[in-house]
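Ticket closed. Logging final result for Lipoprotein.
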Amino acid sequence: MKKILLFTTVFLLLTACQESLEEKAAREAREVTESKCPMPIGDNMYLDSIVFDIPTLTQTQYFRFTGNSDNDSTVENIVSNNDLKGTLVKELKNTPSYKALMNKGISFRYIYGSTAEPEKTYIDITVKKEDYQ
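Final structure:
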């Protein structure tokens, strides 16, 4: 009888403490933002934060251009000469840490703003399940 009670208690404790994939993604996004952001990404760009929205199942990464890249003509040149969405899809597919999120059908949103004009958004791209499967 004691063994059954002990097993049941341990089982309940272990299952009660487990977080869902969505909760884990939200927690990890918050931890990265708090410990590593803003993080330089190459020249003239920073990753400001990562947010995981559980109700919409969307991970949003907020970037900002700085310096010589923080202007309309440079960003327009980047957009017109590159397949940004295709590049982001390829990056997702080649990053093992995103595999579980992609299997769940999570959307990934990338927002690129301006340092000089914080309210300005240059690029806003969402990669959905249909795009990467």
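The chain has a mean pLDDT of 89. No further action required.
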